[in-house]
Amino acid sequence: MYDVVVQTPTRAPIGLLLANTAKAVSRAFDAALADAGGSRPVWLTLLALKSRPQASQREIADSMGIQGATLTHHLNAMEKDGLITRGRDPENRRVHQVRLTAKGEAMFQQLADAARAHDERLRAGFGDEELDTLERIFSRLRTNIND
């Protein structure tokens, strides 16, 4: 029979620390967007449209990493709220293009300000060297996972 020695780590597992931190950061970001009058799906859609004006619904869904039906649900609500308009692509009538309205542009600015403030909150108390170290640590973690 083998002797099995179970060692209790002297430090919390990195994955657990990272998962708990990611959840807390994500919740705080969602709250910041909500306080600014938006949500993560609205923010990601507006961000996609700012990066690529008059994008097709397929292009937006692909950039967000979601299914077309999920995006359609979000776009319906955004169109109802006056943030976007949808129309047929004159060169390909099967394609729906999405455009920001003036209200959508204003919402983008509100949410961009909220996102910037959230990032500043996360960076509070860190010096440049610490932030550089944090970026290297995240990069190494990704490398460790992908190897």
Automatic annotation (TrEMBL):
Protein name: Transcriptional regulator
Source organism superkingdom: Bacteria
Entry-linked PANTHER family: TRANSCRIPTIONAL REGULATOR, MARR, TRANSCRIPTIONAL REPRESSOR OF EMRAB OPERON
SMART domains with a match to the protein in the record: HTH_MARR (SM00347)
This protein's record includes keyword Ion transport: no
Record keywords: DNA-binding, Transcription, Transcription regulation
Keyword Nucleotide-binding: no
GO molecular function: DNA binding; DNA-binding transcription factor activity
Residues covered by the HTH marR-type domain: 11-143
